[in-house]
Amino acid sequence: MKFEELHFSKAPEIGTLPGPCSLSLLSKQQSMEGSAVSYPRNIPVVMEEGKGATIKDVDGNIFIDFFGGAGVMAVGHNNPSVMAAVQEQQQKMTHTLDFPTEIRLQLIEEIQSVMPPGMKKVRIQFGGPTGSDAVEMSLKLAKYYTGRHPFIAFQGGYHGMTAAACTLNSGKFWKEHYLPMIPEVHFAPYAYCYRCPCSPQSIPVLWNVLHTMNTCWKIPTPGCALLLPPLSNRSRVKGVQLFLQIHIYPVLHRSVLLMMFC
Questions:
Q1: Helix (H) / strand (E) containing 255
Q2: pLDDT of res. 173
Q3: Which terminus of the chain, N or C, has fewer Cβ atoms within 10 Å?
Q4: How many percent of the chain have pLDDT more than 70?
Q5: Quick one: CA dihedral 46, 52, 54, 59, positive or negative?
Q6: Which H or E run includes 260?
Q7: How far apart are CA 239 and CA 166, in angstroms?
């Protein structure tokens, strides 16, 4: 199949928004589902079919999908290779909890094969169906392993909407209606030299972060782990790598703190 055949060829093709069919189904959803539904409030369309990087709604409008299912549709909607693999597996077995299967172990081997040098032999733990589940599991694992409970997170970070993960989100928007959250979570400014909240120069920024984090660690119970988002809301990968090499690794090593990428 050619690349252009993976998508709706007419995308984008947009008429009235929201269309009459979408309005009818949105009204029905509002009468049947709880108010926690959020996306349709800002994007009032009802999706009918996805193909590659494009989506068609029930009124025939065709969009280019820049959202990708919050990142999970990296190879597009209804990718033929993915669909074939899913159908083949579904015909054999749908759910096995954490019992081993040949395809499960093949996936672990594939993940290990792309890990950085020095991490090829790490053991894999599947954290659940969502990112929030993975964060929750990681927090519990860190507590169990260290026997400690304080966490350090960064300003601008987002980690999920389950209880503990939400506590580690930056800002009151995510959690002001659910207080109190889990205790002993401390926040430090994130190194982002392009639009820095502390200083326009990179080295003063990094030193400011280090000083703040050292202050955070002077707490009654020794710290458990530091959560570092490789891509913060206000950061880029290159800055994170410099930040890690210069300051974070040595301080974590001295403080016997775990580092969690999430």
A1: helix 249-255
A2: 87
A3: N
A4: 72
A5: negative
A6: strand 258-261
A7: 25
Chain-centroid distance of CA 244 in Å reads 20
Instruction: Identify the band that residue 191 occupies on the pLDDT scale cut at 50, 70 and 90.
Output: low
On the question of pLDDT at 30 being above 90, the answer is yes
Euclidean distance between CA atoms 61 and 18, whole angstroms: 9
Q: Which of 181, 182, 186 is nearest to 225 (CA)?
A: 186
- For residue 187, the cross-strand partners are 153
* Residue whose C-alpha is closest to residue 218's, from 249, 186, 248: 186
Token pair, residue 14, equals: 């947009």
Output 58 or 156, whichever has higher pLDDT: 58
Site of tokens 């570092």: 228
Q: What is the pLDDT of the chain when averaged over all its residues?
A: 80
Please list the residues that pair with 13 across neighbouring strands.
Answer: 62
Tokens linked to 45: 């369309």
Structure tokens at 218: 């002077």
User: Residue 79: pLDDT above 70?
Assistant: yes
Highest mean pLDDT among 119-123, 206-210, 245-249: 119-123
- 35 compared with 240, residue with greater pLDDT: 35
Q: Report if pTM > 0.90.
A: no
Could you give the CA distance from residue 58 to residue 46 in angstroms, rounded to a whole number? 6
CB 223 within 8 A of CB 146: no
Q: Which of 163, 158, 166, 216 is nearest to 187 (CA)?
A: 216
Q: What are the φ and ψ backbone dihedral angles of 155, each rounded to 5 degrees?
A: -60, 140
Q: Which amino acid, 192?
A: Y
